[in-house]
Amino acid sequence: MTQYFYCAANAPAEEGGCIQIFSEEKREGNETFPVLLSSVPMEKPSYMAFSRSREFFYVVGAEKDRSGYAAVFHVEEGGAKLKLLAKAPTFGISSCHLTTSPDDGFLYCANYVTGSFTEFPLKEGVFAGPGHVVEDRGVLGPVRARQEHTHAHCSLFTPDGKYLCIVDLGTDSVFLYPYTPGKGVGSSPSFEYKEVPGAGPRHLIFADASHAFLVNELGNTVSSLEYKEGTLVRTGALSTIPADFRRFTKASAIRLSPDGKLLIATNRGHESFACFTVGENFALTLKEIIPACGASPRDLNFLPGGRMIGVCNEFTNQTVFFPYDPEKGEVGSLKTVCSCPGSLCLLS
Questions:
Q1: Is 247 exposed, middle or buried (0-12, 13-18, 19+ CB in 10 A)?
Q2: In a domain, 49, yes or no
Q3: What is the pLDDT of residue 31?
Q4: Is 152 part of any domain?
Q5: SS3 155
Q6: Is 305 in contact with 323 (CB distance < 8 Å)?
Q7: Sign of CA dihedral 149, 155, 159, 162
Q8: Is residue 273 part of a domain?
Q9: How far is CA 142 from CA 14, 195, 199, 285, in A?
Q10: What are the distances in angstroms from CA 75 to CA 29, 94, 119, 125, 283?
Q11: How far separated are the first and last CA of the chain, in Å rounded?
Q12: Domain holding 179: CATH number?
């Protein structure tokens, strides 16, 4: 069965952005290579997500005036085609991340510049009403150039589906909002996790029901967290860059291999991605730091099947692909490069 994956091309307005649809094609032996099938025009898309059923495909992006939008597509022909169904304003600027509730009843998107998140009610996958904006509030971090106000950067549900996590770079926080099926989230969080001051948390992922990893953009670290009954506790952290690196860099995306054995995180400035083995009790060990073969690796992800990694190099307008051997837990040398103007996000 053919599997598909998608790249968001956040091209300049005059060039026009798009969603690129790829498949993987087998060639020599069992080796696979990405093949660009088609492109769906979309104004400056920044992030993508599926509904839990994978029947619907959601995108957030920016209009020409920088105002945010969310769009919903119907997934057709097994993923080979996307049909636009609706588009709605987020009432935020730099809408940069999104997720659906466990029951597919709501869509949530984080708005970076305005430091808020938007809640959209859904019916049969499509917007059932206008977005409702919830503002982040909290004590700002010490890096005034980047933490001058709240900056919501990630929206993600806890594995038990009881809380929506909003990662805020501006306040060094992860806010947990209680979720009620059919009603959505409340206006105030029930718990606030605080990172090291100035760390600037960016993206959060869960490894299982009680363990998570948080990448910190300003601190260039990955924090290990334990989740229990609506709370998060930090158990450790590791750097994503070499100890002797002194130039400016900022961590970006974080992903976990399908088998849960390798954690990867990108570095924009060092132009690389760090690879961590995930050991007993989810302890991390830095395995290696691999050049991204391009500038500003904004996102990365494992492709369907888990045997290749794609890296979005935003400033060099390319998505590059590396082979991954899950049996050995090893990343190979650069395999192929695909053109993608303003490559920003990879979804599989």
A1: exposed
A2: yes
A3: 74
A4: yes
A5: strand
A6: no
A7: positive
A8: no
A9: 37, 12, 9, 29
A10: 31, 25, 22, 11, 37
A11: 15
A12: 2.130.10.10
Q: Is the Cβ–Cβ distance between 167 and 110 less than 8 Å?
A: yes
- Tokens representing 141 are 């971090």
- 269, part of any domain: no
177 token code pair: 């909002």
8 Å CB contact between 131 and 138? no
| Residue 292 token pair | 């991204």
CA dihedral 324, 96, 72, 104 (to 10 degrees): 80
Q: Cα–Cα distance between 200 and 230 in angstroms, integer?
A: 21
Tokens of 283: 């302890």
Range of the structural domain that residue 150 is part of = 4-252
Residues paired with 325 in a beta bridge: 330
Maximum distance among all Cα pairs of the chain, rounded to whole angstroms: 56
Give the torsion sign (CA, 247, 251, 252, 255). positive
Number of independent structural domains in the chain:
1
Q: What is the residue whose two structure tokens read 């991390």?
A: 284
Name the token pair of 312.
Answer: 């979005």
Strands 262-268 and 272-278: antiparallel
48-105 confidence digits (pLDDT tens):
999 999 999 999 999 988 899 999 999 999 999 999 999 999 999 999 999 999 999 9
